[in-house]
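Can't paste images in this forum, so I'm doing it all in text. The chain is below; anyone willing to post the predicted structure tokens underneath?
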Amino acid sequence: MSALAGVPQIRSRPRADTRWQERAACIGLPSEVFFPENKRHVLLGARRVCDACPVKSECLEHALAQNEWHGIWGGLSVDQRRELVRRRKTEARKGVRA
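Text version of the structure:
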């Protein structure tokens, strides 16, 4: 069916391909493992899961692309992801100047 005349169309961003999640090591684990209240204790448990995960890099890139600033993604904490974003931006600026 075509759009209604005079009604503005909402355009959403294309959905990210999330099929990688089907292969994630965290499938079936409680979300508290990756969204901890006691950050230090749980961060270590989440990292152990992430270190053995076959889609760790996809998970991290998904979190960065979606601006996910809560929880553990790709084995990195929020602070670690922020640092990674800063580092990548600095490297990109240096690459442009070169």
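The mean pLDDT is 84. The radius of gyration is 18 Å.
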